[in-house]
Every structure is written in structure tokens, then in C-alpha cells.
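Dear all,

This email documents one entry for the complex benchmark we are building for the journal club exercise. For each entry we list the sequence lines for every component of the assembly. Then comes the predicted three-dimensional structure of the complex as a C-alpha cell string, followed by one or two observations. Please use this as the template for your own entries, and keep the labels exactly as they appear.
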Amino acid sequence: QSALTQPASVSGSPGQSITISCTGTSSDVGGYNYVSWYQHHPGKAPKVLIYDVSYRPSGVSNRFSGSKSGNTASLTISGLQAEDEADYYCSSYTSISTRVFGGGTKLTVL
Amino acid sequence: QVQLEESGGGVVQPGRSLRLSCTASGFTFSSYGMHWVRQAPGKGLEWVAIIWYDGFNKYYTNSVKGRFTVSRDNSKNTLYLQMNSLRADDTAVYYCARGMYSFDYWGQGTLVTVSS
């Protein structure tokens, strides 16, 4: 049950696009289309941005998009805004019916 | 609207027990799987446990197996986490979250501090 691998930090200027990667194995990310992404502002409840690799819940901006290739999933945020500055986590279903999170990525909007 | 509210956190000595509760409202609780997720100070999110909608299937992360038990009372719209043999590294904010393969609603969390 090792955590999925995410970059510790990413940064971008307002209006730019950034991509956060999430690497697992064939027993989690690569084996199932059950990758989800969360935005977490400290002190608040996490918010789901993407589920089932690429689906956006109603109410989530279309600036957020998800994809997957092999054992790596990705979250892309386009048109960066100041309020996007937060921690981002990926999560996946696993072959032993557990769930696993990535280590988290701190996004800084310059 | 969907609401999840955790309670039961506090300061507890190592080796002791604590039971967390998560009260749900705004949806048909008995139709959804529920999770516990925690975040230790300065660390990332860690998945802890899931219980299926009917309470028959439960799964845990390795570090809590044999010490923590997840349960639910669908008649009371409440999720529980019984935590025994607590250790210092169980110190965290504990969130309950709704869902099966993703977590679509979260509570605000309750802080558990394990310290002598």
C-alpha cells in the first residue's frame, strides 16, 4: 500500500496551464479507471475535482481536466487563478479493494 | 444538501481507545459506501478505511488493521471508527467521506491527538 507518487510542488503564473502527475502501478492507477483528484485548502474539507480519471462533477470548473496513460494519471489546470493555490491529491482504487492517495502537490500561483 | 459532521476527537494517551462518529444528512445514507481519511500534522491525506453501504464489506489500510474498526448504523445515519491501541502516529485530523471509488463529499474533520 505505497502512496502514489506526485511532485511535491508545482508553480505557474496566472493564466498559464500546469499539469500534476500521479504515478502508481498496474495494481492501482494502471489497473482501473478509478483515479480521482482533490483540491485541499488548509483548514477546509477537501473537494473532488475529477473522478473516474476524467469526469468532472457538476459545479467544478472546466479549467480542471484529468487523463491517464499506463500507470500515470494527470491533472491539468488551465487558466491558472490565484484561488487555485492549494494542495492537490490524487487517489486510486487498488487491487486489494483499498484506496490509496498520492503524497500531495502544493500548487503556488506566482 | 449533503452534510457530514465528525465528532469524538480529542486528546488520548497512547494505548487507549477512542470512538469517532460521523453524522450524515441530506442524502440516503444507507445507499452509499463511506470512508475514513486522515491527515497527520504537516503530512498528506491518508486513506484509513471503507465500509460498504450495507456494512458487510470493510477494508483497512495496513497500519490500522487489527486496531481500528469501521462500522455504521444506517438507522441513525451514522458512521463510526473505533480506534484501539492508539499510537502517537495516529495523531491526525480524521475526515469521513462519502463514496465508493471516489470521495464526493467530506466532513470538516475532527482532531485526534495521541500524547501522554
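Observations: The longest strand of chain B covers residues 18-25. DSSP finds no helices and eleven strands in chain B.
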